[in-house]
């Protein structure tokens, strides 16, 4: 099982939602309108919204206390009973509004229609006061706070800011699942987790590549003073900033049946890991694995620690590889601070034994090894129209899989001189064939070290051998 150092007690404040599912089959169209007729076979209920966050934490062996509102109706009573049966300590305040209920019509595992019953206005002033007084009196019990906002009125701007200030005063991390266009009410939170669409609406930046993703994360951080801005990218994984450095983790889901509730699972997993004082890199890998579990299920599902461990076992590189590939060279100053930096470069087109031994020897010369990797266009200019054999993203990913390589930076120029000038490494490493040659960029390094290549081990020789075998 995934190791936990202690039992985490999380407090979740937000919009309580009851998810209702009507299951059936649709075999004909209505004679009244061009719509399918669903013959109902069964009905079921799930915890939604902030309740689903709490439910995910329980599934991950944490303790959960939830605060929110319900209506004086059957759905409110049902929701309260569900929470108790799940072992979630609930503080459900009665409000003059209906319990938020989302009814989904399902046929053959596909959602055909959703019907929402809700009220989205702010709560009565007395409820805000009662909730805050109760939370404040129990705050020392909790290891993390999650604000689960579905814009149903619970997390008003003033109330949200009071909660964030309270939690931070006790060194409790605050994670916010935001909604709307104005994120000012989440200012100073520890972590913010919008999805791609929500982040574009909030930042007014169209996210279509890694650069625009980085720009959006920077804007979230600078505008709202969030320690860890994070954007979930559906099938493209998770992007985030950690100490100002951009990271992107790929998704690891194989089959997608239903993405509803996946965001709840992600924020629950992140909260659990940060409360355990894990690194954000470990936390996002754990959250990615949890998301992979739940989107392979129908409805607002949960992921257990055993299920998450199984995913992580089958994807052992998910923690490391993508985070080693530096997208923005401006991050380099933060990466190399107070470290003895070793730099080398090359095309590394078909990675072979000689490459690995060379890189292993280079890594021994300092604290971190940074590899400058020629882009596809750069390789083509240097090696000819039929190179590279492997595209740059493949080459970068394979290099990043080596434990001796700490970071990879792609460069477009014919030489890495500009890159070396910016990094100014302690040790610049080149192959032994440079013994009587000027090493480009040597004036920017403290020292130059030549490492002999292994005889007869080269990409060119591998390509020639393949060509000879094909010719026979």
Low-confidence stretches: none
Number of helical elements: 16
CATH level 4 superfamily of the largest domain: Ribokinase
Instruction: Write the CATH fold name of the largest domain.
Output: UDP-N-acetylmuramoyl-L-alanine:D-glutamate ligase
Mean of residue pLDDT?
89
Tell me the total number of β-strands: 18
Q: What is the domain total for the residues?
A: 2
Quaternary structure annotation:
single chain
Helical residue percent band: 25-40%
From the spread of the alpha carbons, the general shape counts as: elongated
Across the major sheet, the strand order is: 5-4-1-8-9-10-11-12-13
Give the class from helix and strand content and strand pairing: alpha/beta
Q: Any idea of the CATH class of the largest domain? A: Alpha Beta
End-to-end distance, in Å?
Answer: 53 Å
Per CATH, the architecture of the largest domain is: 3-Layer(aba) Sandwich
